[in-house]
Specification:
Chain lengths: 402, 402
């Protein structure tokens, strides 16, 4: 539904929120989407409570209208009239084919259960947490016995839009998970969910409270991306970028003369996931080089001259490797002959044996079995070993300073 | 402290946990670190409660001894004797220079407040959440007014190790944040923190409960990386790897003939963060190409032939760009002459103007101001626009099916 002329009251006894004027901004007509552009024409967000500091910051945040541009495009505005949320039919919408009175809007209808994820920032924290929680339900998600759809709403920084989303979640029979730094927004989400009778979970609220109590300081109540609240030009920022650029340049055995500059060196046969693993580690700020092991091709001597404490071997189950290689050969359109040397079982086994002999000759290199591991898991094992070796502490942990 | 001969009881009235035998495995002597290797010699994890299903799975998980190799290395074993946790000095250790009776262990001592993060999986969820929560305390973390250190303990899947960590957190005056799928482990963490008087937060427990109630199924109680609980060879896995490989090959204007194959094309002058942004989006499964805009150099015609709905321009404040370019020129060891053409203000402004003209000629391309935005934030803006355009729905959201 278009938010422009949308009017909705939180309870039938309180007055409706003021109806914002329709705006006719062109959708993406080369408008710079930034933190600085103004939104005087935007909806007047009414915040009945909140500290003066918060109100001041709310104003600053209202200036960040970047993501509003895409919300209020020149779509046809619709006057939406709704029953109050305590009307029983609206409160507990029948599933799965509930049709609201504004059923003409073009929201995608989903099969199965929906989870709405709402964030005032990028939304990656809430997405990450929901994905992790869904990992607990793999047994019913596989084969879509119980299909689940997630819907991410990021950059939600006004209470009206928040309530629209909650209302839509109620219509769709969804639950709501949110990360909202502003205590008023978090409370509004909680109240709106209660009112519409939908289940909800505040991901960061309880954690932020405990951290505040531990540090003995109050939280700012501002989303991470809030105006003036982020300092990307830190040393860490430059270090991450440098790591990514280094890792891209070193990919697939390029520039072996730079192996000594890498923090981590990965060695393994083709399709053991060296590239995605390298990139994942680079995102975390580590310079990674990866060296392919190919049967019959001599490895660069720099690999053996590099600090063996930073070299990690990758190995994989031959049957799984063959499956991956077959898929790869197909997607690359290999001819029959090439396909057989690359993905036939005999070759796969011999190449893995070849790699195994190299690993045996370099006993300092830990060899990691990647079969059945997601990239993140292999990365976690490598980083545990890396930090453990580096700090030689008896309680292996990865420490970071803020 | 070495875990081998460590003995500690959860309350003074319950018997101590059995003392595991010291093991003398070589630290990384080319042992394959995998899900399959056995750990019969490992500690006997006592789980007083838990469903038969959980016990069965606990056994399966005990087979995943990968990360145990690095824990139980051939360091000198120490017999550690501890007072019971209800001894007041242990319960509320004085800060900052608390010295335990086993003060000879080599755990790094940290200044300021510590946050211990414990996970039975990779630990990225807990790390992500803590980083997000710390975003609420930027005002006191900047300039290290209130320094904070985080310590990540990943792959924690036995209760003994968990309790060791809690005890160490208590000694260091740290708080504990955890993601533990096994309800017994989560409960143990809670109880141990209560006993030692330290603050704690369970990140996923409450969310998992709400999701379980929403889906109407019980959670598995297994960490995501548990044996048999992950299926990395899904279509999504292959899609992500393909996206990363595509993006690396397309970096910095390479292979302009492939621009039509990209999901997203980024255009901007040097140092607007095209590469890290491309890689970040690729990790999320999008094929990204980036095209540098260099004053006086003609852009590839394929850029203008590609679907304009997928092209995004990046722009940045000239002063910030100059700062970044100066740092870059320095790190690359540019000579004076090159440095001036690259990072001097006049050139920077003219190049940004040049890019601005190209953007003006292509009004369909949204132009994103990256100044003051972290990579994740720019990515979030791009993905919102991308999905909004693609689905043309009136309630912009990024949907995903599980």
């Amino acid at each position: 539904m278009a938010s422009s002329t949308f009017s909705w009251s939180i309870t039938p006894h309180t007055p409706s929120y003021p109806t914002p004027k329709p705006r006719n901004q062109p959708p993406f007509s080369n408008s710079i989407i930034n933190n600085q552009s103004t939104s005087e024409s935007g909806p007047q967000v009414r915040k009945p409570k909140g500290s003066p500091q918060l109100n001041r910051w709310s104003r600053a945040r209202a200036l960040r209208s970047g993501h509003k541009l895409e919300r209020h495009s020149n779509r046809t505005t619709q006057a939406v009239e709704l029953r109050s949320p305590d009307s029983p039919t609206d409160r507990a919408p029948p599933e799965p084919a509930f049709k609201g009175r504004d059923g003409d809007d073009d929201v995608e209808r989903t099969v199965g259960k929906s989870i709405y994820m709402v964030s005032d920032g990028t939304g990656w924290t809430v997405e990450h947490s929901v994905t992790a929680a869904l990992g607990q339900f793999t047994h019913c998600l596989v084969d879509r016995v119980c299909p689940v759809s997630t819907h991410l709403f990021s950059g939600v920084d006004d209470v009206e839009r928040l309530r629209e989303i909650v209302k839509q979640a109620a219509k769709e029979g969804a639950m709501l998970v949110y990360t909202l730094a502003d205590p008023f927004m978090a409370e509004s989400a909680k109240q709106a969910c209660k009112l519409w009778g939908i289940q909800s979970n505040d991901i960061l609220g309880p954690l932020t409270e405990v951290v505040a109590s531990h540090l003995g300081v109050s939280p700012s109540g501002l989303p991470r991306g809030a105006f003036g609240n982020n300092l990307p030009l830190t040393d860490e920022y430059f270090r991450r970028i440098e790591a990514i650029e280094f890792t891209i340049k070193q990919d697939d055995g390029a520039l072996p003369q730079n192996l000594n500059k890498a923090d981590i060196v990965l060695a393994g046969v083709s399709r053991t996931g060296k590239t995605p693993l390298s990139i994942y580690l680079a995102q975390k700020g580590y310079k990674v080089a990866n060296v392919p092991i190919v049967m019959g091709i001599k490895l660069p001597k720099n690999l053996f001259e590099a600090d063996p404490e930073k070299v990690f071997g990758l190995t994989i189950n031959p049957i799984v490797l063959q499956t991956i290689r077959r898929a790869r050969a197909k997607s690359l359109g290999f001819c029959d002959e090439m396909r057989s040397t690359y993905s036939e079982m005999d070759f796969v086994r011999r190449e893995l044996d070849f790699a195994g002999k190299i690993f045996a000759q370099n006993p300092t290199w830990p060899v990691i079995e990647v079969t059945g591991k997601a990239i993140e898991e292999t990365a976690a094992v490598i980083l545990r070993l890396y930090h453990d070796r580096k700090h030689k502490c008896s309680m292996p942990r990865i420490s970071k300073r803020y």
